[in-house]
Every structure is written in C-alpha cells, then in structure tokens.
Amino acid sequence: MNLNAEKIATNLRKGVLEYCVLALLSERDMYGLEIANQLVELELTASEGSLYPLLARMKDAGSVATRWEQVDGSRSRKYYAITGNGRQSLELFGSVWGQLSYQVDGLLGGHHV
C-alpha cells in the first residue's frame, strides 16, 4: 500500500476502532492484550498503544465495564465487557455505517444515491 493509501486507511480505522472493539466485546468479554491481538490480526490497528486510552474513554462513556480476574493463581487481568449502552451504540453504528457505506459506494461507483 502506498503512503497516501495508508494514510487514508489509518484515518478510516481510527474512526471506526471504538465500534470494532464493541463488536469484539459483543461476542465475549476479553482482556486488553486479547483485544489488541484480535485487532492486529484483523489489520484494524498496528499496535496496542492507542487501545488502552480508547478503552479508558469507552469506560468513562459507559460503553464498557471492567473487572479484574485472577489467572494462573497469581496475576490478575482486567477484563472488558460491553454494557447495554455499548450495545445500543454498536447497533446505532451498524445502521449509520450501512447507510454511509451505501452512499459512499454509490458515489464511488458513479451512481448518485
């Protein structure tokens, strides 16, 4: 991917990353590194550096809740779970995304909608 294409892709990913996290959490609760690894695997983010501030903002907004769970008998992991507010946001995003992508696809395909 050339530099300009990567810049466009990066900006688009930043705009939808919160909803991608909510989509992952709608399937099951996950700990931070697990979320980061999934996002990297899906090529939606390059690192976990921007994820933790995003998760903190999402918690403050009430989209996710956290809990600590002890694993391996000694260390603890912070798990993230989608809340009812988060599910509503994800559902709304899905409908907005569907309409927006339809409109953009129409413009890019030369068919004004």
From TrEMBL:
Pfam families: PadR. It comes from the Bacteria. InterPro entries: Metal_resp_DNA-bind_regulator, Tscrpt_reg_PadR_N, WH-like_DNA-bd_sf, WH_DNA-bd_sf. SUPFAM superfamilies: Winged helix' DNA-binding domain. Coiled coil: none annotated. This is PadR family transcriptional regulator. Residues 21-91 form the Transcription regulator PadR N-terminal domain.
